[in-house]
Specification:
The complex is a heterodimer of chains A (116) and B (114). Chain A has 116 residues and is an all-beta fold. Helix content of chain A is 0%, strand content 53%. Chain A is built from no helices and 13 strands. Chain B contains no helices and eleven strands. Helix content of chain B is 0%, strand content 61%. The radius of gyration of chain B is 14 Å and the shape is globular. With 114 residues, chain B is mostly beta strands. The chains are: A mainly beta (116), B mainly beta (114). At the A-B interface, strand 4, strand 5 and strand 11 of A face strand 4, strand 5, strand 9 and strand 10 of B.
Chain lengths: 116, 114
Amino acid sequence: EAQVTQNPRYLITVTGKKLTVTCSQNMNHEYMSWYRQDPGLGLRQIYYSMNVEVTDKGDVPEGYKVSRKEKRNFPLILESPSPNQTSLYFCASIPYFRGQGNTEAFFGQGTRLTVV
Amino acid sequence: GENVEQHPSTLSVQEGDSAVIKCTYSDSASNYFPWYKQELGKRPQLIIDIRSNVGEKKDQRIAVTLNKTAKHFSLHITETQPEDSAVYFCAASKHSGGYQKVTFGIGTKLQVIP
């Protein structure tokens, strides 16, 4: 089954304690992205990756890191989490088909992070 | 960069009535416009999409229209049902020279009142 898998689904942590949220897709998509969802602000892009070893900042990258060592994995790293990073996080992968162009984004189940 | 504005932020309709959500975009290079539905506690999922070479697309009770000149597109849901209650996101996407960018609207919370 084609899917994007995030872990963990829920996480409560303390300020300053490094954490990693994993994201894995089995659809061989080149493009992957991380979003955070906050009330009234919609889905805001944190980082994205066009392919292995190619990453770039989205609209709200401060306080986050990513890596793309393998095509299927795109972890989100918070080196020193702060309470303002409390949010719902989604990973997504997007295929691009030559001749058809952009297509839909496939989202993971979401990770609800609380930083106290 | 691209800016996508979505209105209204909340919408309440009686069951059986129609619902319309509108979005505008700023980048004329955007060529793909998907709509996502996010049910409570779930992930966003595509419900309908439209490309820039098409003006309208329909799938049963939902339809999307696109006006490239005015840079706006809309989602229309007819004969609404309680299960249509969710948050709906519009998005504008472009791909150019290996670079792909998807920009989402802030979302519309639709409540269908039985």
